[in-house]
Design goal:
By secondary structure, this protein is mostly helical. The chain contains ten helices and no strands. α6 packs across α7 (112-128).
Length: 180
């Protein structure tokens, strides 16, 4: 019994990180609490949407947490966090732009103002869809899931997802002023 207690204490001592390790590698929770509000505010300014900013902020923190062993030891983990968030934003923006071109049959525009208009048009078009159509087109066109994967997520079959996506595209083309 005494030997068991001694070996248990030894295992506990070995498993606990040294004080120098904790200083060099701050806990993720502290980093999260220190940076969350600032990153969220920055993403609100970048995206213009509280919901999108919240989603990007959460995804950035998840990605940083997955790599915290390396990120926590960096000279500037905050910079890595912000770069991650901006990469997520740019990736979503590119996907949304591509989806809008596909859905509306539009060509690429180099004008920055036209790009903003296109993004706003996409958002407006998505809002005009039924919730099921919006879910189907976002999952298949923006997120890149197959009809089968999207069907599983939506609790329906692949044919229904394809039908919803097709009807959503038609509605978006009409909304954009194109032909049905």
């Amino acid at each position: 019994m005494i030997a068991d207690d001694a070996s248990r204490r030894e295992r506990t001592r070995v498993a606990a990180p040294a004080a120098s390790d904790r200083a060099a590698h701050p806990p993720f929770e502290s980093f999260f609490h220190a940076e969350y509000t600032r990153l969220y505010a920055a993403m609100c300014g970048v995206t213009g949407s509280r919901h999108e900013a919240e989603d990007i902020t959460q995804e950035a923190f998840v990605r940083v947490l997955e790599r915290w062993g390396a990120v926590g030891t960096m000279d500037d983990p905050t910079g890595y966090l912000y770069r991650t968030a901006m990469n997520i934003f740019r990736s979503r923006y590119r996907r949304a732009k591509l989806a809008m071109r596909k859905a509306a049959g539009r060509t690429e525009q180099d004008d920055a103002f036209a790009a903003v208009d296109t993004r706003e048009e996409l958002i407006r078009s998505l809002r005009e869809l039924s919730p099921r159509q919006r879910a189907a087109i976002v999952l298949t066109q923006l997120r890149g899931y197959s009809s089968e994967e999207a069907a599983q997520m939506l609790g329906t079959n692949a044919a229904a997802v394809r039908m919803l996506t097709s009807r959503a595209r038609t509605a978006m083309r009409k909304s954009a002023g194109g032909e049905a």
